């Protein structure tokens, strides 16, 4: 089973994320009208909620149908934990690049950052994924034991408690905690006065769980509640997509009537994101859901365009870790300083083209080159072995996780 619309939405989200990084790195906003810059940043803000939400969708669509026997669950958990380790290694490489190029990244601070006690300009999503991927087997286990709705209900109170949690004393400024400790706490909880580049773990889990619900809604389930149905043979698939798409659009239109200019500015400027405000996550969930459903409706239901063309065009969705790591390392190493608007626009086009070419070439080599595929497999083997050892206790042959 493959829903191409999910791949398309994920690819667009990655394009928006990398475009925002290039946009900020070049300083293109200084050369375009304010209203255009505001619109651009509003769409850039959709990127992060979209690919986090779609991670939850893929847990439901791809991994949960495999969550059957103990042996299968062990394999799924090993794969997820291996990818978590790969994310962490790539994140460490980006910090190494910053250590070599940025004066503010001393060796001690870089080590602290690699251990999740610091921040990087553009690659915090790799840090986020390193943790969430490692936690994903537990989410799948809970999902299998108690169902999906308890997870959805459990995700709401933390968002609803924002007024109380945001009013707590700052762990560094008020309580005197060291900066690395404060940074780690903020990464986990989303609260504090330090800069926060992306969603915290606890806030991001809300997006993951909503994504799981979206995956469950899209694919349905078999009578035993475990195996996802194939949308191509499910007559209710199109109806479910249209219903949620129309309902989401109605919510967006009605909500737009009550949105204040202050909220719009907060969403486009990123201030609501930095404050971990519930409005940012609500807008992100709504925008991500609508964008995803629109792609699913166009590609998987209306059959706009050929499937093989869409498959080739959605290479960003298959190279997300590579793109976030090496694309941002390219930005760290180059650091262009354009003197005027023409130069800024030229650099923007050149960098986005280079990042796209890198990712497309990597995807092509991984899919079509036996040599490249073998090399990638060898590079992944240490992470696979470490993941297997972490999940399995040799003595007695019992799984560490309740799989």
Inertia-based shape: globular
The end-to-end distance, rounded to whole angstroms, is: 24 Å
Radius of gyration, in Å, reads 21 Å
Tally of strands: 2
Oligomer: single chain
Share of helix among residues?
over 70%
Overall SS class: mainly alpha
Biggest sheet, strands in spatial order?
1-2
Approximate strand percentage: under 5%
Task: Give a brief rundown of this model.
The protein has about 400 residues and is mostly helical.
Could you please describe the fold and organization of this structure?
- This protein is mainly α and 403 residues long.
- It has 18 helices and 2 strands.
- It has a two-stranded antiparallel sheet with strand order 1-2.
- Helix 2 packs across helix 13 and helix 3 packs antiparallel against helix 5.
- The relative contact order is 0.16.
- About 3% of the residues have low confidence.
List the helices and strands and how they pair.
Layout: H1 4-26, H2 34-63, H3 70-101, H4 107-114, H5 124-146, H6 149-160, H7 162-166, H8 179-189, H9 201-219, H10 237-256, H11 261-269, H12 271-274, H13 278-301, H14 307-313, H15 315-318, H16 320-334, H17 341-368, H18 370-391, E1 392-393, E2 398-399
Antiparallel strand pairs: 1-2
Helix pairs in contact: 1-2, 1-13, 1-16, 1-17, 2-9, 2-11, 2-13, 3-4, 3-5, 3-16, 3-18, 6-9, 10-13, 16-17, 17-18
Which labels suit this protein?
403 residues; mainly alpha; two-stranded antiparallel ribbon; 18 helices; 73% helix; globular
